[in-house]
């Protein structure tokens, strides 16, 4: 009821407390709505029951339409606790026990101690196994706030907020461009020297965006703590106003991702995501899989190694710090250069040139300047993207790295790979390149190694996850007698012929 009551309060303030009949009718509607919503909430609470049986977690709800939901305890993959400021004020917590993207039971308005006890019991009955390792992997450091502005959202966030405000004003019948302050600001901006006002405007947007990024970082990651619990579960607790607690069952962890966005990488920082099953849809997975906020790269390497829970035969940090990756061929770099030229340089240059031919010759010089500036940028980014490409197999993990705006190094358990996908098109086939995707029942469902040399694709997949491709391979023996102990594995086409 906060929004309508706030609107009515503003009306009373504007009229000095002299409310007309329409205002009193509005107040009566608000009171009736409050009574209906409250009564419905009380009835829903009164008719809600839950219990844990020998093999299931059950939830019963409904007054006129009764609903009983149950999920097997053995399928529970994580138990999360969340509380926004109002719930925290009353000492309440929301518990979510998840299995798959559409399999989750949510209990609202549990007390914090009851929610903690229920989570511990659910995880214990789910049958987790013990894990050796340091219990506490990481805690928050205030110095990490310096990494908050190192994101493209310092600009995108400001424009998103301005767009939302603009849309809200338009929806209620207010034309923002007719507001005196806005109109005067645009006129002043247009009458000033653009070479001075444009940089100042960008600096102002960056300053506002940086403050917003720091505030958002503090809200999301204050009181952050990453630890292994006694129930062999990896748990993340964080939040300033809205507290969150996300759990990852050890048996559902399939790997880790070291993410290094461009600006954060330039500042020496990185983030870490867990590759785990049962986190819901792709959108939910993006929100819940992050186990480390933007932090120093050394801390990210340590946390990623802790998430992997020991790599036999060495320090797991070397998987991400000095990965043994096979580089991709020079043709992959040429593809990135051509994409940048086609999708970035040519459209902007052509648009400015056409406008210059139709409107003013000044834009023709702008087109030339844009081409001269954009081309070196494309070449640098294409080179960085090519250097980031790599793949390899080490111990019980396979490694994939790619990206320039966000360079991701993925370490996946080889046993977790369920299928392989090989993708190409006429242009990539002509260049001798293939994109290989490892499908897993966790994380983003599939992790791509783009533009790999076609001759490396099948051997890499066969070595990373032996057995999956056996039905699609033929071994060519050496010498007479058709010996197959030493040979070459070639992929077969569906018709049984080598492509």
TrEMBL record:
Protein's recorded name: PH domain-containing protein
Organism: Streptomyces coffeae
Record flagged with keyword ATP-binding: no
Region (Disordered): 479-499
Transmembrane segments: 24-43, 150-169, 193-218, 340-356
Keyword field: Membrane, Transmembrane, Transmembrane helix
Pfam families, alphabetized: bPH_2
Domain YdbS-like PH: 45-121, 393-457
PANTHER family given in the database record: UPF0699 TRANSMEMBRANE PROTEIN YDBS, UPF0699 TRANSMEMBRANE PROTEIN YDBT
